[in-house]
Amino acid sequence: MFLKRLFILIIFGSFVASGNTQELTDTVKVHFLYGSKPAKGYKKTEAKLFGGIKGGHVNIEAHGYVLDFLPGKNPLLPSKKSPTGGYHLNTSTSIDSTDKWLTIYIPINTLQSQKLDSIFKTFSENTPYDYAIFGMRCAAASYDVLSKIGLFPELPVHKNVAKHFYPKLLRKKMIKWAKKNNYTVIRHEGKASRKWEKDEGIF
Fold it and tell me: pTM of the prediction?
């Protein structure tokens, strides 16, 4: 009986160990464009952008592609029957060299990498929800994708929207998380003709 129990414990221990030590073979990049508005003295030459200081954008890059969640024709409220906004698959981040941005490099394992490839394909072909100002936007949508590969806990839509209503809310959370896990974080300061968001108390 003792030997039988010992054998079961060894097999169970090996199974648990193998499930928790998957090799990190790939990297996913999360790009944040900071919200901004024209700086003093530049209101005639700099454009007003959606969201202003509370705006910005976030997208996810992996395997040479960037997954963006973008608005459609009527982004105020979501349309379940015929969404016009949703995910788009691109080959670049569309962030300009004069913008203020931040990128977090996240190591992932083979299973997460395969799952991410599948999400990129299926979500860009058939969006699971509409883009809406009072609903899913780029921050909540990016969190949803990252949670689906196991980086964060999955949340119901209403909780996700409330917690990540605009990019800064997700960015602050992810910067702290990245620093805790010793992940690489790269920042780039934007041009002086715009007033940019700040990350108070993080850097």
Answer: 0.87
CB 72 within 8 A of CB 144: no
> Residue 71's Cα: distance from chain center in Å?
16
The answer to whether residue 46 is domain-embedded is yes
Task: Return the H-helix or E-strand segment holding 90.
Answer: strand 86-90
117 Cβ neighbours under 8 A, 6+ residues apart: 62, 63
Q: Does residue 16 form part of some domain?
A: no
Whether the predicted pLDDT of 7 surpasses 90: no
Structurally, the chain folds into a number of domains equal to 1
Which residue intervals of 131-166 are DSSP H helices?
Answer: 138-148, 157-163
Q: What percent of the chain has pLDDT over 70?
A: 90
Q: What angle do CA 4, 20, 2 make, to 5 degrees?
A: 10
Distances (CA, A) of 157 to 4, 83, 87, 115, 140: 47, 16, 16, 20, 8
Q: Is 1 domain-assigned?
A: no
Determine how many CB atoms are found less than 10 A away from the CB of residue 153: 7
Q: What is the pLDDT averaged over residues 104-120? A: 98
Eight-state DSSP code of residue 128: S
Residue pair 149/116 in contact by the 8 Å Cβ criterion: yes
Q: Which domain holds residue 94?
A: 22-196
